[in-house]
Amino acid sequence: MTTDFRAVLVIGATGQQGRAAVRALLVRGWNVRAFVRDPGTAAARRLEAAGAWLVTGDLDDPGSLAAAMSGAHGVFLALPTLNGPLVTPEGVAAERRRGFSVAEQAVRTGIGHLVYSSVFGADSGTDISYYDSKAAIETRIRALGVPATVLRPVSFMENFATLTRPAIAQGEVIMPLALHPLTPLPMIAAHDVGEFAAVAFERPDRLVGVTLEIAGDVRTGPEIAAAFGRAAGLPGRFARLPAENLRAFDPELARMFAWIDSRPAVPKPDALFDLHPDLMTLESWIGTTTAWRGGHLPFGGWVA
């Protein structure tokens, strides 16, 4: 089988990281294969319209994985953990199993470069299940000797549209987070995970064998609230979520925020701009996500 040295298979292609990787690779002239379970979905059709070649398969079917990788030079791997809105043991087990399978098939098919999106803190002994599963996948990739770049993204700015979305109440923007007000929260836009993935494929001389922690900004809760407030033209206020409330919703998320509160200070991501000069700050993410006018929040707005 002849290898196409400009072909990259994107696994997780319809997710936010995968979509970003597809876009970033297509812009740079790579031949992108988008691994999808159902090519008829709207998300899959959008990838195809953008220029990706849809490859139908199932992560639990090693044969379809091998066929999708055949002749490709690279693989980008981003795996979901959530089952619906929650982290579940089943979801974590599936992530680990599928990550191992991708790494093993990469060896069998002779993949030249695997870029794996893990998580910041994967090697910190957090005892958070979905951190531990990613650490296990990283370890498996290294043990197999796959030429790889491991990206460790921090908290996604997109979480401000879902789990930690701001609210408007009594003429101010309220930012609820389960963090101490002085805890610095590192953040990254999903768009930039795709950009770093593309940079890794473009710069194997620099990034094969590297584990790269990636963030675009680091802010405390009150600073985040102020940024959203400025964008909406309203005062911004931080409100700490009671840990027991979050624990009742999702114990694993509660453990994650407790770990963030307890870890050492996070350095500013200045050095990353050398690899990706257009890395988004929180303000630039807010500005490109939507136009904020007259107190309207992005994604339709939320009212407490």
What does this structure look like?
With 304 residues, this protein is α/β, with parallel strands linked by helices. The chain has two domains: 4-156 and 186-214, 3-Layer(aba) Sandwich (Rossmann fold), CATH 3.40.50; 160-184 and 218-266 and 281-289. The protein has helices at 16-27, 42-50, 62-69, 89-109, 129-144, 190-202, 204-207, 221-232, 243-249, 251-262, 282-289, and strands at residues 4-11, 31-36, 53-56, 72-77, 82-83, 86-87, 113-117, 148-153, 155-156, 167-169, 172-177, 185-188, 211-214, 217-219, 236-240. The strands form four sheets. A seven-stranded parallel sheet has the order 3-2-1-4-7-8-13, with helices on both faces. A three-stranded mixed sheet has the order 9-12-14. The longest helix has 21 residues, at 89-109. The protein is globular and about 65 Å long. The chain starts with a strand and ends in a 15-residue tail after the last helix. The model is unreliable at 291-295 and 299-304 (pLDDT under 50).
Offer a quick outline of the entry.
The protein contains eleven helices and 15 strands. The chain has 304 residues and is an alpha/beta fold. A seven-stranded parallel beta sheet has the order 3-2-1-4-7-8-13, sandwiched between helices. A three-stranded mixed beta sheet has the order 9-12-14.
